[in-house]
Design brief:
homotetramer; mainly alpha; 74% helix; DNA-binding
Chain lengths: 192, 192, 192, 192
DNA sequence: AATGAATGAGGATTCATTCAT
DNA sequence: GATGAATGAATCCTCATTCAT
């Protein structure tokens, strides 16, 4: 009886291992061997499935962005008002599944990768555009400068992330979200 | 008697070359040889003066942070009011000498370095603390939550930087500064 | 399924190549590349199997000492009296497989290695202790100072070796053995 | 006023530094820089005086052998009988100035050097010949096999040295000398 | 005389990648 | 499908040696 359907399992294991290994090492120079080992297979097999290290990195990025997206969807699903939708997006970004050291470190490394790797750049731009349009759409009913405010909130989210990467005066996810939300309140003139 | 006094010249050349090479390559994995070549010397001499690649990277970071600091000093020197001082700090951050692709890329890479390298982490924390205290000091007379607002502005600065690194809808330095300043206006309730 | 079971073959080839290369070069500063080439593989593979040059040197030492030990065992196996056992040990030391320029040179180099490398020192001490206890055990029935005499014989063996290393008035193995044995005769007062 | 007569002082300092550095490092791969530093000058000057590392090593060897020779002369000068002369030679070899770890280690390293370096080989052969002829001359009146016995004693001296290099059950110089002398007693049938 | 400056050559080590089984 | 085997290319680093002053 041949093992069937192994491929998707293997690929997924490699994707998670890529993120985890980069996050743990804090660097893109993790070796294919390390990743493959963490995923429980030989580096040769990793190459077999992905063709090379670059594609593994891309797959890792896609995996990470997929998680972000899923997180946002989950949070937003329960929002009933535009305002609740924005809060949901912000809260999703700082959900514990995203806002933990290894994930932050991986995310930061992917930004670096995007400096030289067009595909990585493309993926991050997609993420940024999606974040912007989500925020702007939700802001439209309640803000007079939805795009400007969307940019400010997006920048703050990224900024809080990068500051978190230094672990200095690090906030928990909820406090980080609260700070961004409170800034948003001020921006759109909400009284709370 | 030998040719003398080359050390400071060579060291400075290597520091600038380190920043430039990392900025251009978008990666910390530039080779010592590349850096040395850009600085116009052999890699052996680079090792002679710095002892190793790590120390060159640290020196590069210190050089970059020194530029930031100098930039801030220059801008702040002409400020006569607290408010002008804050604007000067923000404008300094987005001055063209700082806010250009290579510098941003280098800065991003140093954040990555800080994920695993204690000295790099220490240096960046110093920079963050200094930025915070500069901002908070200037905000004290004009804001009711100077520390909170300083954090928000600092996060925005970093966030705008990292978004600039993707070159998507990239702003010029002045516009970037304007956006941060306008957010600050809203935060402290200034009418302009 | 991959080609399998190469490891012991490669390791053994590297061990012999290490001894041979050090013997031929007369120096520990042979390169991993030279050793690997002699063993018919790339230096990368040598590192793969041994982890580093140091471990290759240690493996080479163990290989050499193993040969010595095996040689002694072979010779001693046929000895029926204590006296014959001692002669066998001495003869084993000067057997042609041990007492040839390359082996002597390797052995000398390993003594040098032991000056700074604790593992090398440990290995040579084991060899010395074993030689001493072999000699002393065999001497006990026929000498009144078995330990003292064992030391003298051991020193002579090493001394003849090191003098052989200069190839000046070099003896053949049998003559060298004869000289040591005749000294032993005098020491224990044997009439022959 | 030019410094005159500096050359012989510098050369001597380098010679002693060479021996000391090799002895301390337990290896011939000490760098010219280390040696020069110990001798209180730049490596460039060391090259200036000796032409290259090899010649510095040779000079170091000559220096060491010169010490040995001087030691022997001193001891022998007071000997009034052939027997006393032999004892003096042996005692000289184990005098504390010779029989200390660093010197032994240097001496061992020079033996290694002689494996590949003809000049080093030539120097050590001279030493051996001189030792042999000294011993044989003194033995002639009191031994029936002066050359054979000279060889045995010479081998023992070298053997005790090399065993000392492992620092296992290391003897002091006087005990080492006593062991060799007592062996000699047995060899030539002296009653003491 | 003396040395800081400078480098070319070389060595240990690592790693992505390929291949044979 | 899966992996041990194998390597070429690259990287950091060291060092003897030379040179200009």
């Amino acid at each position: 009886m041949p093992k069937i359907g192994q491929e998707p399992i293997r690929r997924e294991a490699l994707i998670q291992a890529t993120i985890a290994e980069i996050g743990a090492a804090g660097s893109l120079s993790v070796t294919v061997g390390q990743i493959a080992k963490r995923a429980g297979m030989s580096s040769a097999l990793a190459h077999h499935y992905f063709g090379g290290k670059d594609q593994m990195l891309h797959a890792g990025m896609r995996g990470l962005l997929r998680s972000f997206t899923a997180q946002v969807k989950t949070h937003v699903a329960q929002a009933r008002t535009p305002r609740a939708r924005i809060d949901a997006i912000i809260n999703a970004s700082f959900d514990n599944t995203c806002f933990e050291p290894q994930i932050i470190s991986a995310w930061l490394n992917f930004y670096v990768l995007a400096q030289k790797d067009p595909e990585a750049q493309r993926l991050l731009r997609i993420y940024q555009r999606r974040l912007h349009s989500n925020l702007a759409a939700a802001l439209t009913p309640i803000s007079q400068q939805p795009h400007e405010h969307a940019e400010i909130i997006a920048a703050m989210i990224d900024g809080v992330y990068i500051r978190q990467a230094l672990k200095e005066g690090a906030l928990g996810g909820p406090q980080a979200a609260a700070r961004v939300i409170s800034t948003l309140d001020t921006l759109i003139g909400t009284d709370r």
